[in-house]
Design goal:
The protein is an all-alpha fold and about 180 residues long. It is built from nine helices and no strands. The mean pLDDT is about 80.
Length: about 180
């Protein structure tokens, strides 16, 4: 495939991912009844897990059995698939995720830990395989998408900052909620 066409496909893929992100907020704007919104979010979560698993399975099947990249992608697929049965068992809840977790705390805890362990192991395998083949994130993504190294680095730092801010905010919110219960 020629470079401009590949670049356009990857840019469309990235824009599509960004466009999908706000959909849960649009659900909330269009569905005002809490039980219906809970059902929409329930279906959305299952669809997202299956969507992510599907994309990672496509990547895994690109490689032959035994190749490190195949194993990494398969572990990522499993990290999403392991969440589906627990989520289905919990079902939709109009009162939010906290109420669902209170009903069966071990289901949520075990599937979350399993998913996290599978994802971290998968990413470690992918990182190791990419490094062994000489792929650098800037060259692999920036060059393919037509971005210079500086732009890729800025994007990396923006996402790192967002992740850290979300983790900080979640930690503070957890503390405040627990303090209010005392």
């Amino acid at each position: 495939m020629n470079h401009p066409r590949r670049k356009l496909r990857l840019q469309a893929l990235a824009l599509g991912a960004l466009a999908i992100g706000p959909l849960p907020a649009l659900f909330a704007l269009s569905v005002h009844e809490p039980v219906s919104l809970a059902g929409a979010y329930f279906g959305w979560a299952i669809a997202l897990y299956l969507f992510a698993a599907g994309g990672t399975l496509v990547a895994a099947l690109t490689f032959e059995p035994g190749e490190p990249l195949r194993s990494g992608w398969l572990l990522l697929a499993a990290s999403y698939l392991v969440l589906v049965p627990g989520r289905i068992r919990l079902g939709p809840s109009a009162s939010g995720l906290a109420a669902m977790v209170e009903r069966t705390p071990w289901v949520n805890a075990l599937t979350s830990v399993a998913s996290g362990a599978l994802a971290v192991t998968g990413f470690l395998l992918l990182s190791r395989a990419w490094r062994a083949t000489g792929l650098d994130a800037t060259d692999a993504y920036g060059g393919v998408a037509g971005l210079d190294g500086r732009t890729v680095r800025v994007v990396e730092e923006v996402f790192r900052t967002l992740g850290a801010c979300f983790a900080f905010a979640a930690g503070m919110a957890q503390r405040w909620v627990m303090k209010e219960r005392e």
